[in-house]
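Hi V.,

You were right to ask for the full record rather than a summary. Here it is.
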Amino acid sequence: MNGIVQPLPRSQRVLLAAVALGLVLSSAVQATESAELGATLPPLLDLLERQSPELRAAGHERQAAWERPDVAGSLPDPMLTFEEMGIARDDPSLSPSGVGSTRYAFRQTFPLGGKRGLAREIAEAGAEQAVARERLSRVELRSLVKLAFNEYQYAHAATQVTEDLRGLVDELESIAQARYRVGLAPQQDVIKAQTEHSSLQSELLTLERDRRSTAARLNGILARPANAPLATPAGWSALPAAVPTLAELQARILGGNPQVAELNARIQEARRAEELASRNWIPDVTIGTAVVQMGNRAEEFELMLEMNIPLWGKRRSAEQREAVSMRYAAEARREAVNSRLAGSVGEAWSALETAFRQHALTARTLLPQAELTYQSALASYQTGNVDFATLLDAQRQIRQLRLSLLSYELEQRVRVVELERLVGAEL
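Predicted structure:
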């Protein structure tokens, strides 16, 4: 039967078909997720949690730190001693039965005064610092993703506004050309419209550069290639339904900011180290036992008790002073960080409130007034009552106010992200 391929059994064919279908579906899902990535913020944050190397590193460091309490609270390794005495000079032998005597000793040291418990608590405080550092990394990276996404959204929205205004300038150019052809407007009006069109084209190129730069930064934070595709954003990320008061935000810092949590754990570590330094005056005890072998028989049994003598007080006093200074330093650093964070929260909260007001004023008053001014100028230009420069100024005012609206939208979200970073949680 050489050269004839035998068909696979039906069960194997079904299994291979199922595997192939699963691979196809998995590829389709991944392609869909990739195509939609960038449209909204939540998938970007989910991707950050899944593949950020910084978060993985912080997680491993936290896991490593939580192994240290078991090490710090354990007894020292026991000591086993093997001694041979009475080895013959003319016929040396290392066999226990061939020497004068062999001594087997076992010793174990026991720290007294609760020093093992304090050492464990010091290690636990260090582990709590690692937990806080992991939280800090997560908060910082999520803030960077949010900021980059909002800037990415701004670049797209500003591009859309500029393109719409370029269409408006094209209409003005058509009006100027029509009036120029019948002798109702000078050629300079057409040239001014074309110059304005070129200026908007230059702004579009700048916005495209900003969009690509922001996309590359966002991809970098997400550990993706810089040129990885991102979908067109679907719109601004939602703002909190209600922003807490300044007093509430400053109170939340004390319980939520990971940097403050790390400093609290450091103070706890320093306090335990100070207590441990004061207990190092208490001696440690070593208990041991030994068996002495002569020939093939155990002839003697020994019991030992050893104790270290804390004789060099200068060294232990220095240890205590060092521990006290470290506690003072940690407490002072926490006080400094609390003051700085309180000031930063106040600054961000005030800026957010101002951005809300500026957005409302622009949307409800300034932009409608500018649009009415433009319509009036357009009608007056068509009847020859105003020049083309006045019409262009009215158009530029609309463009500036629409871009200002987008800037206020961005400013609001930037300040919200800053407040969330400071308090260590979503608003």
